[in-house]
Amino acid sequence: MACQSNATNVKEDKTEELQSTERNEELTTRSPRDWLKAKWKLRRKERSGGSFEVDADSCERGRWSGKRRVEETEKKEEFNDDDDDEGCANAEGKHWRGRNSSFEKVRKEEEEDEDGRSTISAVEGDTKSSRETPKRNDEEELPGVTEGSTTQQWSSPHPILSKLLHSSTSSSSSLNLSSAESDEVFSEGEDAGSKRKTFRKVRISENNTLYTDAALKYVSKGGEVLKLYSEVEANCLDCLMRDPLRPFVPQYHGLVTRGELCYIRLEDLLSGLKRPVIMDCKMGVRTYQEDELVKARVKAPLRSDMYQKMVKMDPSAPSAEEHAQKGVTKWRYLQWRDSISSTSTLGFRIEGIMMEDGSIQRDFRKIQTLAQVTEALLYFTRSQLHTLRAYHSRLLALSDALKNSPFFRTHEVIGSSLLFVHDHSKASVWMIDFGKTTPLPDSQELRHNVPWSEGSREDGYLIGLSSLFFRSVAKRDNPILYTL
Ligand SMILES: Nc1ncnc2c1ncn2[C@@H]1O[C@H](COP(=O)(O)OP(=O)(O)OP(=O)(O)O)[C@@H](O)[C@H]1O
Ligand SMILES: O=P(O)(O)O[C@@H]1[C@H](O)[C@H](O)[C@@H](OP(=O)(O)O)[C@H](OP(=O)(O)O)[C@H]1O
C-alpha cells in the first residue's frame, strides 16, 4: 500500500499558530533550508547506520536516540521560549535542572503543579472539543468511576512525563539513576571534546530512555507531544489515520517546525490520567530490520557503545573478535538483546514500567519465560482485576482491528511498542513508535503470526500479542483471573 506523508489529511489543531496545511507549506516553501537541514541530519544518521558522528561543534550527531537528545538540548532555549508562549510549565524545567531531585520531590512538585492547573484545563477542554475527531471510546472506564472529573483535572500535560523530559536536558541525571555503565558508553571516532558531551547525553539516555526520550518534547497546550520528525514514522501515522487501527494510535496532528527542526505532533496519551502507571512493551520476534542484517554482513560500523552495554550485561557475550575490536555491529547487538529477552521466544519484551509513585523499573531485559512475564504484568497491574479486565478487552479490540487493518497487512512492524497506561479510573493500550515500520513491496502481505526467516520480513507481532496477555495473565492459574 503506497502511503504518502500528507499532513493535510490529519486533523487541524486550532491551538497552534498554523494549520497543518500551512505547516506543510512552511516546511516546503517558507523555510526550505530548515526543512532540508533537518532532513539531511536524519538521512546522515541512516547512512551512518546509527553510529556516532561528530560534527563541527563536536556534538554527538549520528546516534539516533542520542542524536535527538542532543538536538533537543541544543534547542532548549528555543523550546523554552516556545513553552513560555504556549503556557508550558517552565518552572518544571528549572526544578529538574537541580541535581538533587528525587522522585519524592517530583511527586510533591507534581501535587503543587496540579493545584495550579485548573485554568489550563479549561482552555484545553475547549481545544479538545474543537478537534475533528470525535472523542473516542478508547479507554476502558473502570467500574464505579466516572471519567469527567479526572479528565478535566488532567487534561493538561502529565507532570511526570513533562518533568522527566525536561530532566533529560539537564547536565546530569537529576533522577539519580545514572550508572557507571553509561558513563563509559562512547562510540568510535569521537574526540575528547565530543566524548565529554556524549558522556552526558548517553548517561541521560541510558537512564531515561523509557519516559524521557528527548525525541518527545512535551507541549502543554492541547495535550500533545512532539517527536522529532522521521519520514518513515510520519508516513505510517498518515496511513494509520485512515486505517481501522486509528483508535489504537495516538492522534497525529501533522508536522510543526521549531527552530530548524521538524517534529511530528502526537496526541499525549497520558492526558487525562492521574498518576499514570505505564508499561512499554516492544513488539515482535525481532527488533532489527532485515537491512541491518545485510549491512552487518557487508561492512557495518562498529558500535562501541553497544559493545559496552553488552559487556555490562554479560561480559561473556561478545566473541573474542568483538572483545578485541571493542565494538559490535548494531545488528549483532539488537539480535543479542532479542535473544536474551522474551522477544525471540514470546514475540515481545517489556522495555520498562513506571509505577504511580514515579519509580521506573527496567530490569526486564533478561526475562524470557511466560511465567516471568506474567509476574511482571501482575506487578504492573497490582493484580487489580478491574485493570486487568480493562486491558484484556482493549487488547481483544486491538486484535480485531489488526485483523481488519490494510496497514497491518502491508507493513513490516519492527521496534514498535504497545504502551499500556492506567490510573485508578482508566486503562488503555496504544500502538506507538513507527520509526522502523515499513511498507512491503506491492502486493506482498504479512501474516505476523509466524516465525521470521530471512527475506520473509515477518515480524511476529501477533505472536507477541498472543503471549502478552492471552497466554500469560489470562491463563494464570489463579481463580480470580479466570474470570477475565
Ligand atoms: N503519544 C505519546 N504520549 C505520551 N507518551 C508517549 C507518546 N509516545 C511515546 N511516549 C512515551 O515516550 C517513550 C518513547 O517513545 P517512542 O518509543 O515513540 O520514542 P523512540 O525515540 O522511538 O524510542 P526508542 O528508544 O524505542 O527508539 C514511550 O515509551 C512512552 O513512554
Ligand atoms: O534498549 P537498548 O539496549 O539501550 O538498545 C537500543 C534499542 O534497541 C533501541 O530500539 C535502538 O533504537 P532503534 O529502535 O531506533 O534502532 C537503539 O539503537 P540506537 O542506539 O542506534 O538508537 C538501541 O541502542
Give me the secondary-structure topology.
Layout: H1 20-30, H2 32-47, H3 64-74, H4 76-86, H5 90-97, H6 103-115, H7 118-129, E1 140-141, H8 147-153, H9 159-167, H10 180-183, H11 192-212, E2 216-219, E3 224-228, H12 231-240, E4 252-258, E5 261-267, E6 277-283, H13 290-298, H14 304-313, H15 320-325, H16 330-340, H17 343-346, E7 348-354, E8 360-361, H18 370-381, H19 385-403, H20 406-409, E9 411-414, E10 417-422, E11 426-432, E12 436-439, H21 461-470, H22 479-482
Antiparallel strand pairs: 1-11, 2-3, 3-5, 4-5, 6-7, 6-10, 7-8, 9-12, 10-11
Helix pairs in contact: 3-11, 5-9
Main attributes of the structure:
single chain; 484 residues; alpha+beta; six-stranded antiparallel beta sheet; four-stranded antiparallel beta sheet; 22 helices; 13% strand; globular; binds adenosine-5'-triphosphate; binds D-MYO-inositol-1,4,5-triphosphate
Write up this protein.
Residues 147-156 have a biased composition (Polar residues). Pfam families: IPK. The structure is a single chain. The strands form three sheets. A six-stranded antiparallel sheet has the order 1-11-10-6-7-8. Strands 2-3-5-4 form a four-stranded antiparallel sheet, with helices on both faces. With 484 residues, the chain is an alpha+beta fold. The protein is globular. It has helices at residues 20-30, 32-47, 64-74, 76-86, 90-97, 103-115, 118-129, 147-153, 159-167, 180-183, 192-212, 231-240, 290-298, 304-313, 320-325, 330-340, 343-346, 370-381, 385-403, 406-409, 461-470, 479-482; strands at residues 140-141, 216-219, 224-228, 252-258, 261-267, 277-283, 348-354, 360-361, 411-414, 417-422, 426-432, 436-439. It has a domain at 290-346. 46% of the residues lie in helices and 13% in strands. Helix 3 (64-74) packs across helix 11 (192-212) and helix 5 packs across helix 9. The relative contact order is 0.13. The site of D-MYO-inositol-1,4,5-triphosphate (I3P) has 12 residues, from helix 3 and helix 16. The site of adenosine-5'-triphosphate (ATP) has 22 residues, from helix 11, strand 5, strand 6 and strand 10.
